[in-house]
Amino acid sequence: MGIWAARRVRNSQDFLVAGRRLPFLWATSLLFSTWFGSESILGASETFARGGLLAVIEDPFGSALCLFLVGIWLARPFYRLPVRTFGDFYALHFGRLTERVATVLMIISYFGWIAAQLVALGQVLRHFLGGTLPLMTALATALILSYTTWGGMWSVAAVDLMQNVFIIAGLIVLIGFLPEGWTAGLSQLPTGFLDFWPKPEPHAWLEYLAAWMVIGLGSLPQQDMYQRVVSARSEKVARQAGIAAAFLYVSVGLLPLTAGLFIRMHHPEWLRTEGEATAPILRLVEGYMPPGVQFLFWGALIAAIMSSASGGILAPAALLSENLLARWHRLRTLWKARLAVIVVAFFCYLMTLYEQNIYKLVGESSIFSLVTLFWPMVVGLHAPRWRSATGAIVSMIGGIVAYYLAQAVEVAIPPLWYGFGASLLGYIAGTVGEKTFTFWRDAFGWHSRSRTGATAPRAADRDLPA
């Protein structure tokens, strides 16, 4: 299907955003697939089995919140932006230096996420084929590249649509094979296991809200989100697809949680100890699904991993080709984008050789963008009078420095809040400093141009689509 869809690619816009021609069903499927990967099936089920509902607020609930906010808030302004990539957004409103800083930060935030999907797919391939994990991860990388390099977003969208059928069917079949009456022991669960709201304590509420914000807000100022939104064939379709994908994500995301609940109630001994490789949900599949039907679940797992990995690779590749390699004219733009896909996949594969723990690889990619890019995005979209290159750069640097400092000293409040607050204060301080300098420069007749002045390139300067 990926190769079939690649026949529609005629230029870089087709490759990066499917020519802005995806219908509602394709656009909804594409948005749903943004994060529904290995951790949504393997990780969320085990995390829920261990810690209850409050332990999985980040995913699926925070992920669904992000998609809902895209539908009701960002789809309209995103779709109207005269830019190819989200790096161009920062160039348009804050200047070239801000664009380069933001682009590098966005690219870095993707590497751990992509590497985690490659490792997960490598583990699945090793389960069936044997061999070493590095070899199977290399095979997984080649498999993803086989259609992503050639067809870009058209191939990703087509394959995602097919894969989502497997994801939903496989998870429904898994729940259907659980024995009747298994929910009879719900009253024996620990107190608060199914609570959706935290205890009425300030610290508990700060942790709870931080869990919602990690993906709920942190994944909004990202290339993959922008890319998937503007791939829709119209602004109306983009809005409707975002809202529909949010409800679909919650509905499908509850299925792995149901499996986790069964494991907690009937097989708590399956919960992994340190160093154990087999996820509890895989034991559930092998123990309760007939061998002839297990292929549906394996199809769901492989589909979820592939859809996340292919879209994940395409996002930083678009930033690399359009924002960092834009002035390299030896290759056509389309082939430059394809080369960027290969480069990104190669470096992510090298990362898997260094670290093969999926949880560590996924790490803090959404937090990284939340504490660096969120506030400049909000100002760029909604407060044109307060756009400031200095403010944006100080916000990015201040947010990430404050976050990692708070993490290093092990503060009681979640470090995300320190980074989030420092990013806001950094933007205010940088903007006030720039405007103060501009005021005194004009007052004393200094006419030299400020390096952070209004030099942001417009669509015509960057050959962006109007």
CATH architecture: Up-down Bundle
Helix content: over 70%
The fourth-level CATH homologous superfamily is Sodium/glucose cotransporter
SSE ordering: HHHHHHHHHHHHHHHHHHH
- Measured by DSSP, the beta-strand proportion falls in under 5%
Radius of gyration (Å): 23 Å
Main CATH class: Mainly Alpha
The CATH topology name reads Sodium/glucose cotransporter
What is the total number of structural domains?
A: 1
- What is the number of beta strands? 0
* Distance between the ends: 31 Å
Give unreliable regions as ranges. Answer: 450-466
**What is the average per-residue confidence, as pLDDT, rounded to a whole number?**
87
Can you count the helices? Answer: 19
How does the SSE layout of this entry go?
Elements: H1 2-5, H2 12-17, H3 24-32, H4 38-51, H5 57-80, H6 86-94, H7 96-129, H8 133-176, H9 202-216, H10 223-230, H11 235-266, H12 280-288, H13 294-324, H14 333-354, H15 358-362, H16 365-382, H17 389-408, H18 415-443, H19 459-462
Provide a descriptive summary of the structure in words.
- This protein is mostly helical.
- It has one domain (2-364): Sodium/glucose cotransporter.
- It has 19 helices and no strands.
- The chain is globular, with a radius of gyration of 23 Å.
- The model is unreliable at 450-466 (pLDDT under 50).
